[in-house]
Amino acid sequence: MKNQDLKKIANTLRGLAIDAVEAANSGHPGMPLGMADVAAVLWTEFLKHHPANPHWANRDRFVLSAGHGSMLLYGLLHLYGYDLSLEELKRFRQWGSRTAGHPEYGHAPGIETTTGPLGQGLANAVGMAWAEKHLAARFNKGPYRIVDHYTYVIASDGDLQEGISHEACSFAGHYRLSKLIVLYDDNGISIDGRTELSFSEDVLTRFAAYGWSTYRIDGHDYDAIRAALTLARTSDRPTLVACRTVIGYGSPHKAGTEEVHGAPLGKEEARLTKKALRLPVESPFYISDEVLQLTRKAIAEGRRAEQRWLELWEKYRRKYPDLSAEYESCRALSVPEDVLSSIPFFTLGKMATRIASGKVLDAIAVRIPALVGGSADLTPSNKTFAQGQTVCTAKHPAGRYIHYGVREHAMAAIMNGMALHGGILPYGGTFFVFTDYMRPAMRLAALMQLRVIYVLTHDSIGLGEDGPTHQPIEHLAALRAMPNLSLIRPMDANETAVAWQMALTRREGPTALILTRQNVPTYDRAALGLAAAQNAARGAYVLIEDEGYRLILIASGSEVALTLEARQLLNTEGIGVRVVSMPSMDVFDRQDEVYRRSVLPDNCPLRIAVEAGASFGWHKYVGEKGLVIGIDHFGASAPYEELYKHYGLTAEHIAGRAKSLLLQAGRGEQAAVSNFE
Ligand SMILES: Cc1ncc(C[n+]2csc(CCOP(=O)(O)OP(=O)(O)O)c2C)c(N)n1
Fold first, then answer.
1. What distances in angstroms separate CA 386 from CA 278, 347, 569, one per listed residue?
2. Which tens digits make up the pLDDT trace of 399-435?
3. Is 165 in the pocket of ligand 1 (CB under 6 A)?
4. CB atoms within 10 A of CB 603
């Protein structure tokens, strides 16, 4: 396209950003004004996409990592023919609009991921590029390149300052994700002022050291942008193009300053800026017919591109029926019924739930085509590497097991990118305590309701000698507080098997499996009169109860065994008990009221919850008359049996507390009766 036409498109994007931010009296005009030229070239001349079918699997992915510049994305989506009306742009940042403050996945077609927390989008893009390379290696055959697209990113200084960018981009270099192209908005400005206040590394050298190709261009020079993108697409490495731009480009008084980063230009400055950009000053949200004609060509081009792909796909399907079926299974993220039903059943003995998890994976992982595993350098501990899996490397990208390196944060964000890309159902492991390192990405998985599975082992003080740095305390409570995240802490091997079934079939968001390092008993449930582990699928269930029980003991994970022992002690004194296993509070909370009341009936208010973690969150199940035996302080380095003793997590202590509770309640009842008399 002629450069002068590109300029018209870029200035139209600028006008839309100015007006939307002005109308909302809130938003970030600086970045869209600065990066409009780069975006116009990319979207007009390079991006392979299909605005009328934004879900076409082989489209290029475009990620606006600097999500604060959301108006750039909304402007692009509208101009190039996505289903995002001008009315929506006029309602930027308003209640119920599809144009949220920061781009939100699912709000409008064409938003590939939710961005805003800097660095996340970039790391998601790494996951998308990995997914493309992996699926291409598995499914492409000679000329039949059914998976073949680029992943483009616009990233800002803030994106590259965030730690996650180091992890993710180092990963991308190592795995040679050559179809990842990052356009870095190198404008030298962030919120506090000039980036030299805090940012002085040589970014190009940094990325070169990761194994990337790097270029520096003037981000307002169309020929340079075009040349850099052309080169980037042929590189055998990921590419960073540092685009020197002027933030707030066009604004006579604010361009090049932090003032334009995140505030409306103001009426007068908006007028002057439009004048400088040769946009009609009196027509807000102006789009000329000429510009619309140029950009909307994308619709027909997209249709043709998909048509070509469909023809290729048809031939491929006839030639490679098995492979194409496997590819379709990946795209559908299907978990075959026969695989689910072949999840092993465990018999007697002691086994850590992480070991059980490993055995489940051994039995099923490679039989679920979309499933891809990994760990942040804790593979032997997390038991995440399954029988039959091969390791992914730069040269063998078809491998379905990823060594992420010690990069928890990037791992979680990369898994988000894989899930967003489609065709991959990712699981990844680390120590539970290190969810602290990946929480921001887990939160986005929850916000976007992505199908991602976390295998989090070493789930409590039960890990023992590694000490308080490695012993989760508040982590259960913290993750349980996260909307849309399902957390399951199974009590034994068989509940672990059920937990995997739940995780693999959940469509509403991510699942965290919380697993022990230490052994726990596997019960002969039938012989002992314990309810079947399959009940765990309801979040909580009555494991066993005595007739006329007066007390409910509730626990999750490894502490269920303690409550069973405590019950026996109480039984010897003639006290009847109901034991409830509660592997998942959120799943239980979603059950109907009748079921919930059947597990925790109102007429039994004496309840004790036991968990080797913070007590926070348990009170709603035990009520005012109940109590929680938890750990509301940090742990210590010692053999775990000793820690359990010191912290009151023993059957004897639980039984003792239960007796006092009953006694107290008895006295209370007596007192009430005598008062009445
Ligand atoms: C993780 C995170 N921390 C802080 C912020 C708040 N924030 C938004 S933009 C920004 C920095 C802006 O600088 P830059 O990335 O260079 O963007 P530009 O000013 O060029 O648009 C910050 C700190 C954020 N969005 N995400």
1. 61, 21, 40
2. 999 999 999 999 999 999 999 999 999 999 999 999 9
3. no
4. 5
Mean pLDDT by 10 residues, the chain (677 residues): 98 98 97 98 98 98 98 98 98 97 97 98 99 98 98 98 98 98 98 96 98 98 98 98 98 96 96 97 96 98 98 98 98 96 89 97 97 98 98 98 98 99 98 98 98 98 95 98 98 98 98 98 94 98 97 98 98 97 98 98 96 98 95 97 96 97 81 44
Which of 484, 483, 448 is closest to 106 using CA atoms? 448
Q: Tens digits of per-residue pLDDT, 386-402?
A: 999 999 999 999 999 99
For residues 498 and 328, give the distance between their C-alpha atoms in angstroms, rounded to a whole number. Answer: 26
Ligand 1 lined by 70 (C-beta under 6 Å):
no
> Parallel, antiparallel, or unpaired for β 519-522 and 511-514?
unpaired
Amino acid making up residue 570: L
Angle at 202 between CA 198 and CA 205, to 5 degrees: 150
Please, how many CA atoms are within 13 Å of residue 452, restricted to the half-sphere of its CB?
31
Residue (of 584, 636, 577) closest to 607 by Cα position:
577
Specify the pTM. 0.97
Distance, CA 429 to ligand 1 centroid (Å)? 30
State which of 21, 28, 118, 243 you would mutate to test the pocket of ligand 1, scoring each by most atoms of that ligand within 8 A of its C-beta: 118
| Predicted local distance difference test score (pLDDT) of residue 674 | 46
Enumerate the β-bridge partners of residue 511. 453, 486
61 forms beta bridges with: 151
Return the ligand 1 atom nearest residue 69 CA: 21
Please give the Cα distance from 621 to 556 (Å, whole number): 13
Residues 78/86, Cβ–Cβ less than 8 Å: yes
Find, among 544, 671, 558, 663, the residue nearest to 610 by Cα: 558
Contact 444, 117 (CB under 8 A): yes
- 408 is an active site residue: yes
The position carrying tokens 């506090």 is 192
Confidence at residue 368, expressed as pLDDT on a 0 to 100 scale: 98
Outline where DSSP puts E strands in 258-329. none
**CB 341: neighbour CB atoms within 10 A?**
8
Q: Which of 155, 160, 151, 64 is nearest to 114 (CA)?
A: 64
pLDDT at 669: 59
Residue 223 buriedness (CB in 10 A; 0-12 / 13-18 / 19+): exposed
Give the Å distances, CA to CA, from 608 to 600, 648, 657.
11, 13, 9
Q: Does the beta carbon of 261 lie inside 6 Å of ligand 1?
A: yes
Q: Which amino acid is at 342?
A: S
Neighbours of 327 (CB within 10 A): 24
Question: Which two three-digit tokens encode residue 27?
Answer: 């938003």
Distance CA 359, CA 669 (A): 50
Question: What is the C-alpha separation between 57 and 49, in angstroms, rounded?
Answer: 10
What would the 3-class secondary structure string for 174-200 be? HCCCCCEEEEEEECCEECCEEHHHCCC
For residue 258, give both structure tokens. Answer: 């932090």
599: left (phi over 0), alpha (psi -120 to 50) or beta: alpha
Which residues have a Cβ under 8 Å from the Cβ of 279 and sit 6 or more positions away?
11, 12, 14, 15, 286
Beta strands at 401-403 and 213-218: parallel, antiparallel or unpaired: unpaired
